[in-house]
Every structure is written in C-alpha cells, then in structure tokens.
Amino acid sequence: MKKSLGWIELNSIPMGIKVADAMLKSANVSIVLSSPVCPGKHVVIIYGQVGAVESALKVGVEEGGVFVLESNILSNVHDDVIPAISGLCDVKELKSLGVIETITALSSIAAGDIAVKSSNVELVDIRIARGLGGKGFVVITGEISSVKTAINACLNSLKDKGVVTSHVIIASPHKDVLKTIFN
C-alpha cells in the first residue's frame, strides 16, 4: 500500500499541539514530528495510508482554523524521507554534496522526496525551520552526476512554486563538513 506524509503549519504553538492531538485521534496515522519551529510556529507531520492521512489532515485544518498557514499531502513518499526528517540517516560516506534551501520549512520535505526519487542519491538531512527563520533545507550525497541530476529535478519541479531560495553542489567536500551540518 502506498504511504503518504501530511503536514500542517500553524502560527500558534498551543493550537499546534491541539491539532496534533485531534489528527492522531481521527485516523490511523503516526506522528513523525510535532514541534515548535521558528518564528513562533508549530509544525505537525503525520505518516500513514493515503486515505488516513487525507482524513487526519482535513481534521487538522478544520481544528486549526485561522491559525493554519500551510498544509499539504505528499503521496507515495520515499522510504528515506522520514528518517531524514527525524535526523536518523546513517550516511557512511560523504561523496558529492548537494544542498537545497527552501523559503518555507515544509517545502524542504517535498524537495527531499523529489531528490531521492529522481536520482541515485542518499538523503543526509531534511532540516525544518529550527533556528532557520522559518526556512528549510535538504542535504543529499552521492556521485557528482547523481547529485546534479537530483538538484536539477528539484529546481525544475519546484520552480513554479518559487520556494527554492538557493542551492549548491560540492564535488569533493572535506570530511569534516558532515559534522558541521548537524550542529
């Protein structure tokens, strides 16, 4: 069965907690993240079967009302996206590096999914708005040609939404660069 992610961003931390509770009670979904983010917002990300996520997200949007800033569903999500959001990726070798920064926190999830589906790359991290002023970023690694392909796929797919603020490709990153990403 296809799995999907649903996310909602609210401009109220207490309402974000209430929305997370309502979403979890309304359908058979799992919580990936429910957390305050910069600046004074709350993000809830859920995971499950497409229908259950759609149902829970509808409840979240209704419950959140005027506090809802953004909501979205990403169907058929790649298996590596959730560990990347959770910071649990176990990258053993840093090859070429690609980084995409997005203007909204949650669009970085879509960028990560696009990247890993479009080319033979590994997700290193999907960072969502913590200490980023509401932005997000995705870090990928792989052979240089694969990283370029993934970055270009993200840029092309997200071009019309205008959410990519910058990107870089580093062919041979220093071995200590990975340590700095997780600071």
General description of the model:
The chain folds into two domains: 3-75, Alpha-Beta Plaits (2-Layer Sandwich), CATH 3.30.70; 81-181, Alpha-Beta Plaits (2-Layer Sandwich). Helix content is 37%, strand content 33%. It is globular. A hairpin with a 7-residue loop joins strand 6 (122-128) and strand 7 (136-142). It has helices at residues 13-26, 50-64, 81-86, 107-118, 144-158, 177-181, and strands at residues 3-10, 30-37, 41-49, 68-75, 96-102, 122-128, 136-142, 164-170. The mean pLDDT is 89. The chain is built from six helices and eight strands. It is an alpha+beta fold and 183 residues long. The strands form two sheets. The protein has a four-stranded antiparallel β-sheet with strand order 2-3-1-4.
SSE diagram, text form:
Elements lengths: L2 E8 L2 H14 L3 E8 L3 E9 H15 L3 E8 L5 H6 L9 E7 L4 H12 L3 E7 L7 E7 L1 H15 L5 E7 L6 H5 L2
Antiparallel strand pairs: 1-3, 1-4, 2-3, 5-7, 5-8, 6-7
Helix pairs in contact: 1-2, 4-5
Helix content: 25-40%
How far the N terminus sits from the C terminus, by CA atoms, comes to 36 Å
- What is the averaged pLDDT score? 89
Question: How would the global form be characterised?
Answer: globular
* Widest β-sheet, arrangement of strands: 2-3-1-4
Strand content: 25-35%
Quaternary organisation of the protein chains:
single chain
* Number of structural domains: 2
Superfamily at the CATH H level of the largest domain?
BMC (bacterial microcompartment) domain
Class based on secondary structure composition and strand pairing: alpha+beta
Uncertain residue ranges = none
